[in-house]
């Protein structure tokens, strides 16, 4: 058997990067609870028809990016979720979550898409998403955008831009779609292969092309905003008014469309220039028709999802991230016979909230005091706790500061642990 490696586009997350992810997730959890969004965890595997609905437009994700397979035992068509909104809505319907009114939910977890792997684009990637189910007002669209804006501020990201658009309602989209197809048909010679393929399946998506040769054509194409009726415009204006009142800067991008087919009215993206072509860090919008598409009764909803990998890349390049809690102490132990006493002491320290790493024996024994101090230093701990023969005999520990030369070394009785333990706790 050859060397086993991870699947292409599916990455291991290792320390210290994993600490950065934990730092970010803790920030998000805290934020979500202040906005009264509750956590939901849906399965990673869903039935394929949840995503392939036969309704709506063909999207790239459904058409060619999904990991689909059959249940080996009963042949059920299954799919690794490419996104979580459909699963959240399925769960809301299955458990009648909205019986007593709207629900605000958030999720975190891996999604799977068979894309061409590149920086910021993976085949397994983590998303965090927020969904407000059962609310139709523009103030909820605004709340979600304000929540994301607060998140950028709380992690110290400054150069994230907000782009907004309104996709209107189905009849408005249909009128625009017809105008769009007619327009692109008139200019068929300029369309690339992708655009020609999408012309009748998803012409809106042509507007999202990254092909520089088509930019002129796309810029002059009929704009959906010009096809919106009064109600759609009024929803859009209410949202803009709230954002303005909260000093949230935005630009209206009439060409902004989303990868999934279920959006209507508000769509938005937070983007940055600092991640190259994978510059969208968070995206979302309103999806008032998804409940019906999944067999439920008409229920308005709005949400967003952010790409954890991209946000972290951004936070890392900006030097914003935490690196996880620093270690308080490293226990230096010279005799294996001292282990029972050392372990029970460390157990009490950890119960008192102190983080402590213990030196462990290798085949060569415990190693010299000098080599153990080297390890202690490399661990990043603020104190070395020395359990040498003299200390063990006297039922004491020597506490030696490793980072601050001004702090004196002390000896403490193990019996007094409750008094000295708190002094080890890092204040950061
Ligand atoms: P893109 O245009 O970049 O392909 P998308 O429209 O497919 O994005 P969504 O389905 O709305 O994106 O997902 C929301 C967010 O999840 C994106 O803005 C991005 O930050 C992240 N994301 C999407 N696909 C990937 C991926 N393959 N790898 C890493 N992050 C991703
Ligand atoms: Mg995509």
Keywords:
single chain, 428 residues, alpha+beta, BirA Bifunctional Protein, domain 2, Rossmann fold, 2 domains, eight-stranded mixed beta sheet, five-stranded mixed beta sheet, 15 helices, 16 strands, 34% helix, elongated, binds adenosine-5'-triphosphate, binds magnesium ion, HisRS-like_core, His-tRNA-ligase, ligase
In short:
This protein has helices at residues 17-34, 60-65, 85-94, 138-154, 170-186, 193-198, 203-206, 215-219, 230-245, 290-293, 308-317, 339-351, 369-379, 389-394, 417-420, and strands at 38-39, 45-47, 67-70, 77-80, 103-112, 124-133, 161-166, 251-252, 264-271, 280-286, 301-307, 329-333, 356-358, 383-387, 396-401, 410-413.
What can you see in these coordinates?
Keywords: Aminoacyl-tRNA synthetase, ATP-binding, Cytoplasm, Ligase, Nucleotide-binding, Protein biosynthesis. One of its GO terms (cellular component) is cytoplasm. Belongs to the class-II aminoacyl-tRNA synthetase family. It is found in: Cytoplasm. It catalyses: tRNA(His) + L-histidine + ATP = L-histidyl-tRNA(His) + AMP + diphosphate + H(+). The chain is of the alpha+beta class and 428 residues long. It has two domains: 17-168 and 228-317, BirA Bifunctional Protein, domain 2, CATH 3.30.930.10; 329-426, Anticodon-binding domain (Rossmann fold, 3-Layer(aba) Sandwich). It is built from 15 helices and 16 strands. The chain has helices spanning 17-34, 60-65, 85-94, 138-154, 170-186, 193-198, 203-206, 215-219, 230-245, 290-293, 308-317, 339-351, 369-379, 389-394, 417-420; strands at 38-39, 45-47, 67-70, 77-80, 103-112, 124-133, 161-166, 251-252, 264-271, 280-286, 301-307, 329-333, 356-358, 383-387, 396-401, 410-413. Strands 1-5-6-11-10-9-7-8 form an eight-stranded mixed beta sheet, with helices on both faces. A five-stranded mixed beta sheet has the order 13-12-14-15-16, sandwiched between helices. A hairpin with a 6-residue loop joins β3 (67-70) and β4 (77-80). α1 (17-34) runs antiparallel to α4 and α4 packs parallel to α9. The longest helix has 18 residues, at 17-34. The chain is elongated, with a radius of gyration of 28 Å. The relative contact order is 0.12. The mean pLDDT is 92. It binds adenosine-5'-triphosphate and magnesium ion (MG). Adenosine-5'-triphosphate (ATP) is lined by residues 83, 113, 115, 120-122, 125, 127, 258-259, 278, 280-283, 305-307, 309-310. Adenosine-5'-triphosphate is lined by residues 83, 113, 115, 120-122, 125, 127, 258-259, 278, 280-283, 305-307, 309-310.
């Amino acid at each position: 058997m050859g060397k086993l490696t991870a699947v292409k586009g599916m990455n291991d997350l290792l320390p210290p990067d994993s600490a950065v992810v934990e730092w970010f997730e803790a920030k998000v959890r805290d934020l979500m609870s202040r906005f009264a969004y509750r956590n939901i965890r849906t399965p990673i595997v869903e039935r394929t028809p949840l995503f392939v609905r036969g309704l709506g437009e063909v999207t790239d994700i459904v058409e060619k990016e999904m990991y689909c397979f059959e249940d080996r035992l009963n042949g059920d068509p299954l799919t690794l979720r490419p996104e979580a909104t459909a699963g959240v809505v399925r769960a809301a319907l299955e458990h009648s979550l909205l019986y007593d009114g709207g629900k605000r939910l958030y999720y975190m977890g891996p999604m799977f898409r068979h894309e061409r792997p590149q920086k910021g684009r993976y085949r397994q990637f983590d998303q965090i998403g927020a969904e407000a189910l059962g609310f139709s007002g523009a103030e909820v669209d605004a709340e979600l955008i304000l929540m994301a804006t607060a998140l950028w501020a709380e992690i110290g990201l400054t150069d994230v831009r907000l782009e907004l658009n309104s996709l209107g309602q189905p009849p408005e989209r249909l009128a625009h779609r017809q105008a769009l197809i007619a327009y692109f048909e008139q200019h068929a010679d300029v369309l690339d292969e992708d655009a020609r393929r999408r012309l009748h399946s998803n012409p809106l998506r042509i507007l999202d092309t990254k092909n520089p040769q088509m930019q002129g054509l796309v810029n002059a194409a009929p704009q959906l905003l010009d096809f919106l009726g009064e109600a759609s415009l009024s929803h859009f204006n209410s949202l803009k008014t709230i954002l303005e009142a909260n000093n949230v800067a935005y630009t209206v991008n009439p060409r902004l469309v989303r990868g999934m087919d279920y959006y209507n009215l508000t769509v938005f993206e937070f983007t940055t220039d600092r991640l190259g072509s994978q510059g969208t860090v968070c995206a979302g919008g309103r999806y008032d028709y998804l409940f019906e598409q999944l067999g439920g009764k008409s229920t308005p909803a709005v949400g967003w999802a952010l790409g954890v990998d991209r946000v972290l890349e951004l936070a890392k390049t900006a030097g914003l991230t935490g690196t996880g809690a620093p270690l308080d102490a490293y226990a230096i132990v010279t005799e294996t016979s001292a282990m029972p006493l050392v372990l029970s002491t460390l157990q009490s320290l950890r119960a008192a909230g102190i983080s402590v790493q213990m030196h462990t024996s290798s085949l060569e024994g415990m190693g010299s005091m000098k080599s153990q101090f080297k390890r202690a230093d490399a661990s990043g701990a603020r104190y070395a706790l020395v359990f040498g023969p003299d200390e063990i005999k006297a039922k004491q520990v020597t506490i030696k500061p490793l980072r601050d030369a001004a702090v004196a070394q002390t000896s403490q009785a193990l019996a007094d642990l409750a008094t000295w333990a708190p002094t080890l706790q890092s204040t950061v």
